[in-house]
Amino acid sequence: METGAGSKGIALTDRQRLAWLRLIRSDNVGPATFCDLINHFGSAETALEALPELSRRGGSTRPIRVASREDALVEIEFAGRFGARFVGIGEPDYPAALRQIEGAPPMIAVKGRTMALHQHAVGIVGARNCSASGAKFAAMVARDVGRAGYTVVSGFARGIDTAAHRASLDTGTVAVLAGGLDKPYPPENERLGEELLGAGGLLLSEMPFGWEPRARDFPRRNRLIAGTGLGLVVIEAAARSGSLITARYAANFGRLVFAVPGSPLDPRSKGANGLIRDGATLITAGADVIEALAPLTRIDLFSPRQISEPIFEDERAMALPPSENDRDAIVTALGPTPIEIDELIRHTGLPAQSVYLVLLELDLAGRLHRHAGGLISLNLAGF
User: Fold this and answer.
1) Separation between Cα atoms, residue 5 and residue 202, nearest integer Å
2) Are residues 154 and 293 in the same domain?
3) DSSP conformation letters of 226-274
4) Is 313 domain-assigned?
5) What pLDDT, in 10s, does the model give residues 138-190?
6) Do 79 and 123 share a domain, yes or no?
7) Contact, 32 vs 103, CB < 8 A?
8) Average of per-residue pLDDT values in the chain
């Protein structure tokens, strides 16, 4: 069965890659801000030069930290010695499905064979303290979808994740890490990482090398698991668990969500049973997943987004900064309640480019909150 996801894109030059890494490693530059900066200024190098002035105009009371060329070179050189490399959104080795999600990381670090990223993928997640039967079922599903030509994606955690990775070593698996590639968590899975790489699998992270994972980093990792696959399988998830966060991301990204039913008396099954109640597809075998995903592999779901195309050095004339009156009107129209950017444009009656530029200024000054669905609000604590 052919499930290839393709490898479209344009490769960055070394100079572009260095500038991209500097930009995403600079203060207050997240994925959405990164793309807005590139689309406005045409290149990462030009955007880097503009960061201090943008932050000042946004009302920052302290200079913004712009990642230095030296620090970026050190990280790139460390990645090379570690056997890893950086891949930018829009490049051939960037996962096609991940490229489409809201908040896709502009750059990812990868180690291993990138062939696993050129196949359609299925995410498998679940309880860390899983039962023996839960681990057995996860392994069964992972083997079945792997033999059908899918890459298995999971989060390298104990329990269900580990079972899914091990069962798909022969067919292709991707482990998404919450910390840097050189800081695998949990430490006892370091041997699994070696086996995974030896079998032709891949380690993937958006975090800097040397980054020790914190609690807040795991939801960020979960969105990558959800975004990389066509579907997500949830096995033994408690009512409050990272697996349910992953399932919520998957549903928001338009992915198929599958859940394995369990005993109502087992707390580990409460979350998965709740997903089924709320509309997730109940499965009892890997064949259920394969059958549901088959129609999605026959169409080109993940053609390159327009947002990634101008990223490749499209230098352009830029509009003059908005006047202070226009800037005040935009800030006044914002508040703590999230709104759509189009609504802000309609309310102020100002040109879209002016509104987007002021939002960039506020974002870089730490005065803007970005919410799911592209909503924004004013960070009152940033005043």
Assistant:
1) 16
2) yes
3) HHHSSEEEEES--SS-HHHHHHHHHHHTT-EEEE----TT-GGGHHHHH
4) no
5) 999 999 999 999 999 999 999 999 999 999 999 999 999 999 999 999 999 99
6) no
7) yes
8) 91
C-beta atoms surrounding 277 within 10 Å: 10
Do both 225 and 282 map to the same domain?
yes
Residue 315 lies in a domain: no
Residues 122 and 99 in one domain: no
Clarify whether residues 102 and 66 are in a common domain.
yes
Q: How many angstroms separate the CA atoms of 49 and 33, rounded?
A: 15
Is 271:244 a contact under the CB 8 Å cutoff?
A: yes
Q: Are 102 and 227 in contact (CB under 8 A)?
A: no
Amino acid sitting at position 363: D
The domain in which residue 263 lies consists of 115-298
List Cα–Cα distances, 258 to 150, 321, 339, 366, 383, in angstroms: 15, 48, 32, 38, 44
Place of tokens 């490749």: 312
Say yes or no: 268 and 128 in one domain. yes
Domain count, the chain: 3
**Domain endpoint, select from 79, 108, 137:** 108
* Distance of alpha carbon 130 from the chain centroid: 26
H or E element that contains 151: strand 151-154
Verify cis geometry, omega within 30 degrees of 0, for the bond prior to 31. Answer: no
Looking up residue 348, the CATH number of its domain turns out to be: 1.10.10.10
> Which residue in the block uniquely carries the two structure tokens 């033994």?
236
Q: Determine the 3-state secondary structure of 84 from DSSP.
A: strand
Cα distance between residue 264 and residue 249, in whole Å: 25
How many Å apart are CA 3 and CA 148, to the nearest integer? 8
What element of type H or E holds 314? none
Classify residue 209: in a domain, yes or no: yes
Query: How far apart (Å, rounded) are the C-alpha atoms in residues 345 and 348?
Result: 5
* Residue 4 covered by a domain: no
pTM score above 0.85: yes
- Chain centroid to Cα 78, Å, comes to 22
Q: How far apart are the first and last CA of the chain?
A: 57
